[in-house]
Write a structure and sequence with these properties.
Blueprint: H1 12-20, H2 27-38, H3 44-57, H4 61-72, E1 88-92, H5 100-110, E2 115-119, H6 129-133, H7 145-155, E3 157-161, H8 168-178, H9 186-198, E4 204-211, H10 220-236, E5 240-247, E6 255-256, H11 258-269, H12 275-291, H13 298-310, H14 313-324, E7 343-348, E8 353-358, H15 360-372, E9 386-389, E10 396-397, E11 402-408, H16 411-424, E12 425-428, E13 439-443
Parallel strand pairs: 1-4, 2-3, 4-5
Antiparallel strand pairs: 5-13, 6-9, 7-11, 8-10, 8-12, 9-11
The protein binds uracil.
């Protein structure tokens, strides 16, 4: 791990004030600030103030590069050059019901691409890959780097969280941002994602940048800006990077909540599952296979991924990874072995018509309220709770018909969640005349 490089005169308060006043920070100041926080030399409250100043003031390109570098070098950078296959990862900026990582890692591995995936936990109203994986009893996301390498060498994919060695600065900052309203900054998101991803020793990266009411970047313009920042950062470090701007104006798939999402992942790996989720998985897999040298084109990569699902090879890869990481792989054939909520509650529509829109962030927040995410840094997550949607945008609905079912363990929380979900559904007289595309644009490559 790199040594602290805090200058003699470094004072956190000076760095906070400068950022507050919109003055560009030097590389040394950013590095000093990040190292001081990683080494617990400055408290959460000072870092929270600085993060908020970044959200409000933004960062220049040199500042963003310095922040990414400081976070990347706050820990080790893996050397996976001894593995013969190309190393490719994908990362999403975060959404509601976005469980594609759990499908993609085994799917790309089944095609011979190596996928060393280091993921995060739920952030704000969005779900996190690690929380979903931990819904599988026994699944260990805290492997040592030696164990991570062993799983990767054995089955071609491994999925862990940031170890103490990998981008420890992001680990601390991520948890703090989650509870201080400082997630929504393209500069902080870029540094967070790219520091983790560049530490993985990958050759190429597929980014899924979400846009819409459930994304951190609500407008396509902001999503494209973030995508450009990340592609530029990755290319500066010599990696092949492509970013797909994808739709998050309604939840992806039908299930939201950690154990429920594992159920939907298995459905997709069995060749079923909701169409939007299946289609996005195939598109992202197409890119992973292409950048990983397993297919000449993205279209070929998609077709190959589809065959790997039909043949059951992708599901077998998932089973192998779950077992290697200590998880109970029997959940794949028997979903009842996943954590189960004690109660269910329907959410019904007051009027008849068509679902015109769904306020997606509120649905994500409803899941957090149920206990599926964290409201405070120290909160633990209830893997069993969540929401199953029965109606998506454009669907016809009768008065009194359920739009969703809530899976819960605490009645008061379920009631709060129900109000939010009810308010999220806008029922119109006619279906929307245009359908939002699943893939809005592709940036890079
Ligand atoms: N995902 C990350 O890893 N970091 C962010 O800041 C947002 C989404």
């Amino acid at each position: 791990m790199s040594q602290p490089t805090v200058p003699q005169t470094f004072r956190a308060i000076d760095v906070i004030r400068k950022k507050r006043d919109g003055i560009e920070l030097s590389q040394a100041e950013i590095e000093g600030f990040v190292n001081a926080y990683t080494n617990a030399e400055i408290p959460d409250y000072q870092v929270s103030a600085w993060l908020m100043a970044v959200v409000l003031r933004g960062m220049t390109r040199p500042e963003t590069a310095a922040l990414t570098d400081a976070m990347l070098h706050s820990g080790d950078v893996l050397d996976l050059s001894s593995l013969p296959a190309k190393k490719v990862d994908k990362h999403s900026t975060g959404g509601v019901g976005d469980k594609t990582s759990l499908v993609l890692a085994p799917l790309a591995a089944a095609a011979g691409v190596s996928v060393p995936m280091i993921s995060g936990r739920g952030l704000g109203h969005t779900g996190g890959t690690l929380d979903k994986l931990e819904a599988i009893p026994g699944f260990n996301v805290n492997l040592s780097l030696a164990e991570f390498r062993h799983v990767l060498e054995t089955c071609g994919c491994a999925m862990i969280g940031q170890t103490a060695e990998i981008a420890p600065a992001d680990r601390k900052l991520y948890a703090l941002r989650d509870v201080t309203g400082t997630v929504e900054s393209p500069y902080l998101i870029c540094a967070s994602i790219m520091s983790k991803k560049l530490a993985e020793g990958i050759d190429a990266l597929v980014l899924d940048v979400k846009t819409g009411s459930g994304a951190f970047m609500k407008s396509e313009k902001d999503a494209a800006f973030l995508a450009g920042l990340m592609v530029e950062t990755g290319e500066r470090m010599g990696k092949q990077v492509v970013a797909l701007i994808t739709d998050m104006d309604q939840p992806l798939g039908n299930m939201i909540g950690n154990a429920l999402e594992v159920v939907e992942v298995v459905e997709v790996l069995r060749g079923g599952g909701p169409e939007d989720l299946r289609e996005l998985c195939l598109e992202l897999a197409g890119w992973m296979l292409h950048l990983g040298g397993a297919s000449k084109t993205v279209a070929e990569g998609k077709a190959q991924s589809s065959r790997l699902i039909s043949s059951g090879k992708a599901l077998e890869k998932f089973r192998q990874m779950v077992k290697l990481q200590g998880g109970d792989s029997r959940v794949i054939d028997d979903a009842k072995r996943l954590p189960q909520a004690q109660h269910t509650m329907p959410v019904t529509s007051a009027k008849a018509g068509y679902v015109g829109s769904i306020q997606c962030e509120q649905v994500g927040t409803a899941c957090v309220i149920l206990g599926g995410g964290r409201e405070r840094k120290e909160d633990s997550v209830d893997p069993a709770v969540g929401i199953v949607l029965h109606k998506k945008v454009g669907d016809r609905i009768a008065a009194g018909e359920p739009v969703a079912t809530i899976y819960y363990n605490a009645e008061a929380k379920a009631t709060r969640a129900r109000h939010l979900i009810e308010a999220s559904y806008v029922v119109a007289d006619a279906a929307p005349s245009t359908k939002r595309p699943l893939i809005h644009r592709i940036i890079g490559k």
